[in-house]
Write a structure and sequence with these properties.
The structure is a single chain. With 403 residues, the chain is an alpha+beta fold. It has two domains: 122 residues, no CATH class; 239 residues, Rossmann fold. The chain is built from 13 helices and 16 strands. It has a seven-stranded antiparallel β-sheet, sandwiched between helices. A hairpin with a 2-residue loop joins strand 7 and strand 8. Helix 4 runs parallel beside helix 5 and helix 10 packs antiparallel against helix 11. The N terminus is likely disordered. The structure holds S-adenosylmethionine (SAM). The site of S-adenosylmethionine has 16 residues, from helix 5 and strand 11. S-adenosylmethionine binds next to helix 5 and strand 11.
């Protein structure tokens, strides 16, 4: 159906969604609206409108992720209404409006049949008591945050756990941006695997995120070698009635595939990251979110090597950091060679952890696999190492990458 004012084709559900955004702006209940679309032949476009309550004034922050870097500017309410109906945003494929009293979701299935539905408000007055600069997509009073001891029984984040909350909330924003449309449009239970899950902060957060948006309950597993955390996590999952979530005491093995949609591996030590990624590849993962940790493998092999950049090699600390960068660049190239579109993000403020680099990827038919593999081999030879665990784990699949 045609929206004559803006001359843009929008269907009835999209029109109702835009109308609800306008009403929420007018009655002051608007918190956030996120739109994503897939223009022909292009990357998914994502735009978000966030109400920011500053010390002196409130304004809407408009961000897009057309590149992996956010472009941000401020909009007044009038410009905002126009922007939402502009060809840049509409017609969209998926969208969520957060208001003070409900969330409204617009989703399309694979056959592009639209659906508009409401859920409970997930963003009340989020995080403004401790942090006035940012509205998080995660509400402080989610039951799993209370169960993990991050929030009080009254639903406020404990002051001392604010950095942890920020890390979890940032992670939820990242997955929302990258998998929001997939979660809303998928007609089967989505599978989630968190390898090296530790206390399960991100496993619970991802399960909670998917369960509250997907059409069917997800199936999720957290895996860790530590028995005590696994027992605690299983107890909490049962208490929260997260029926599709189990935690397993096991070592990450790259050769035991089960189908996986979303793979998470945050700070699994050294080459455990490569084992996790290799398992994900063999499980045909759709998306991965992976933060590497203590990349020692290449640093050890190149300790006495003079290859690389001589000036950097003169300083041991710089040489070590360079080896970290080479390790992760190789991961990105190998993942591309195996058919994934890969980007790097900084997922949490540096003051919280220096290990804030995240590799994010999704399956893609259009990446140049052959070129990425050749670039990997060149980097390996130029930099002078012989073994990278991700390559070792997946040699059979890398033998002849398809262009
Ligand atoms: C630094 S913690 C991170 C925990 C969690 N991913 C997070 O970000 O909150 C790393 C976790 O990985 C687990 N781990 C390391 N190597 C592993 C392996 N090979 N198999 C399973 N778990 C592993 C450790 O026991 C630890 O709980």
């Amino acid at each position: 159906m045609v929206n004559s004012a803006a001359s843009i084709d929008v269907n009835d559900e999209q029109r109702s969604f835009l109308e609800a955004c306008k009403i929420a702006l007018e009655d002051g209940s608007f918190k956030r609206a996120v739109f994503s679309s897939r223009a022909k032949g292009n990357d998914k476009f994502k735009a978000s409108f966030d109400l920011i309550l500053g010390e002196k004034r409130k304004f809407i922050r408009y961000s897009t992720n057309q590149s992996s870097v956010d472009e941000t500017n401020e909009l007044d309410a009038h410009t905002l209404k126009e922007k939402m109906s502009s060809p840049e945003i509409s017609p969209f494929r998926a969208a969520t409006l957060n208001t003070g009293s409900f969330d409204l979701h617009y989703a399309e299935n694979r056959k592009m049949v639209p659906r508009l539905y409401k859920t409970k408000a997930s963003m009340k007055d989020v995080a403004q008591t401790h942090n006035k600069q940012k509205n998080y997509a995660l509400s402080e009073d989610r039951p799993f945050l209370k169960g993990l001891g991050v929030s009080t029984d009254g639903g406020k984040v404990h002051k001392k756990h604010y950095p942890k909350f920020r890390q979890i909330a940032n992670f939820v924003e990242i997955i929302d941006r990258d998998i929001g449309a997939f979660v809303q449009s998928t007609d089967r239970p989505i599978s989630i695997l968190d390898l090296g899950c530790g206390k399960g902060y991100l496993t619970f957060a991802t399960y909670d995120y998917v369960a509250s948006r997907a059409k069917m309950q997800p199936k999720a597993s957290g895996v860790d070698i530590k028995t005590n955390v696994i027992d605690l996590c299983n107890t909490l999952a049962r208490k929260l009635n997260f029926d599709g979530l189990v935690f397993k005491n096991a070592r990450i093995k790259p050769n035991k595939p089960e189908p996986v949609d979303i793979l998470i591996a945050l700070h699994a030590c050294d080459t455990a990251t490569d084992d996790a990624l290799a398992l994900g590849i063999r499980s045909d993962m759709e998306y991965f979110f992976c933060a590497p940790c203590c990349q020692a493998e290449i640093a050890q092999q190149t300790e006495t090597s003079t290859k690389g950049f001589d000036l950097i090699n003169a300083y041991p600390l710089m040489k070590r950091r360079q080896a970290d960068i080479v390790t992760d660049t190789c991961r990105a190239l190998l993942l591309t060679a195996l058919g994934y579109e890969v980007k790097f993000l900084e997922f949490t403020p540096l003051e919280h952890t220096a290990k804030n680099l995240m590799l994010v990827g999704k399956k893609s038919d259009t990446v140049n696999r052959q070129k990425a593999y050749e670039e990997y081999l060149k980097l390996k030879s130029d930099y002078g190492f012989t073994k990278h665990s991700l390559e070792e784990n997946l040699k059979d699949l890398l033998a002849e990458p398809t262009p």
